[in-house]
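Reviewer comment 2.1 asked that we show a complete input and output for one of the modelled complexes. We chose the glutathione case, as it is the one discussed in the main text.
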Amino acid sequence: MLKLHGFCVSNYYNMAKLVLLEKRVPFEEVEAVPDGSPAFLARSPRGKVPFLETDEGFLNETGAILEYLEQLYPEPALLPAEPFARARVRALMKAIELYVELSARLGYPEAFFGTPVAPPLRERCRDELLAGVDALARHAAFAPFVAGERFTLADVYFLYSFDLAKGVARALFDEDLSARLPGARALLQRLGENPNVQRIAADREAAMAAYLARKRAGR
Ligand SMILES: N[C@@H](CCC(=O)N[C@@H](CS)C(=O)NCC(=O)O)C(=O)O
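Response of the prediction step:
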């Protein structure tokens, strides 16, 4: 059976978990907290979660894990079959990861863990995050899903990136990112009605206090 390693507060872990649940793949969750140990790095070379344990070995990087699951379990399809449409979904996944999630991540210490971010980094976070969100406003369809009429992997990236980005923008520069992204609010609401999304949110909530205590203790 596949084993998903990571922890329930991780947004990337939750992307992989949602895809496993949506595709009704039997899997086991294994709690793994990055510790930089040789044993951890042997399974996830950059020391990140999630990583997926398969009969053939370990897979890391969420995008690669999602593509692997899509190929192994094509139903329900979370990527379009037609090459151009498929490439467009991949472009949206990449844009959300690089220009929204990673830009917002610069502000996580202050927004979520009470550690102030130095002014130059805060400015970089603001510039890059707003540019990323404005690019997404030009790029995404929100009709009603990120790539159009169907729920795809781009929605999975959006769901587990945009809320965090909103939290960063609110905390660091008092900006409402939803106001820059028409359709985002309605889509988040719609995705929040999905029972698998609700289950993941409940698991995340249950794990949050212990996670915050660990982060604040610098671990
Ligand atoms: N590029 C990686 C990013 C994963 C990532 O950033 N995971 C975070 C948790 S959300 C992590 O493992 N952080 C631990 C650390 O950086 O020490 C992916 O797509 O899987």
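Residues 83-105 form the longest helix (23 residues). We note this here for comparison with the apo prediction described in Section 3.2.
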